[in-house]
Amino acid sequence: MEVLNSTPRLDESENSMQWLRGFVYEMKGTHTPPNEWCVAFQLSLKDGAVHWHRALSRKTKRTWSLLSDKFISYYCSQFSHSASTRYYRAKRMEKENIRDYLNRLNGYARDANIKFENGGRNTREHVKHFLKTCGDKDLERQLTPMQLRDIYTLEEVMSDILKVEKHESSKYSSRKDEKRYGDSLSIHPGRMKSVMATNSYGRSDNRSRTHDRSRSEPRSPARSHLRITSSHASRGCQ
């Protein structure tokens, strides 16, 4: 079987969904499990699709249902638009990882033949476009004054920022856990005094009751008998 040898370019004359249907039709003819289609699919990619595929997780690359869903989401949701329109209308989706969005936008730029990887004006405009559409105002405020001149510097700086944020988030979570654990073990000073006073009162009260009981209780019969016997013995001696 001859597998389709290239993904379609994303312009108005191409239909990515039609290409995917053709690929699936061809692969069904091989009677192989769907997950084995992933290798053939990868070998069919070219241009920007190769970069798109590299950015996917290992699990996605090996699972056809995930891989095809990613392809449809990335290439087919707006196939009626030109590559240039897709690029300039791109926005970060809800819950989309910011690094994933950058990879997606880079792919759109390659499909639109925007030369953003070699520095210069195109790169600066690409970085600016990313910051305006990433949905992270704090990141935009941090990076805009830096006037980054190439995409690789942007990726490195963004990676460093995300590492710091992850580290800070981990520290904050750790402090919360420590505080929660400490609160469960500690006793408020006021409560501690109350506990000590109760214990002290209990011990004092016990001692008092023991003393009173010893004074009020009758003497042991054995001891009384011993005194009486001693008294008779002394009289006999006289």
TrEMBL record:
Chain residue ranges for the region called Disordered: 167-238
One Pfam short name: Retrotrans_gag
Basic and acidic residues biased stretches: 167-182, 204-220
Domain Retrotransposon gag: 41-114
Sequence ranges of Polar residues compositional bias: 227-238
InterPro entries reported for this sequence: Retrotrans_gag_dom
The protein, known as: Retrotransposon gag domain-containing protein
